[in-house]
Design goal:
This protein has two helices and no strands. The chain is an all-alpha fold. The protein has one domain (1-69).
């Protein structure tokens, strides 16, 4: 499997989001962290995954559903 590496700024943003969620629900924060890591793994191994959303943006962005476990 391909590996991913987040920039320091991205790591900080993920930490901020997870920390914010953890103030109310630590279990949910862990699930969100795991879901994000799974999404990062998916993109590292299959960079073309997802579909575009012309109704949201004209930028070349890909969207897909992520379901925390």
């Amino acid at each position: 499997m391909a590996a991913f590496r987040l920039t320091p700024s991205a790591e900080e943003h993920v930490g901020d989001v997870v920390g914010f969620i953890a103030t109310d629900n630590e279990d949910a924060a862990v699930r969100v962290r795991n879901a994000l890591n799974a999404a990062f793994d998916l993109q590292a191994s299959r960079p073309g995954t997802g579909h575009t959303r012309d109704d949201l943006t004209e930028r070349a962005l890909k969207f897909w559903a992520s379901i925390p476990t």
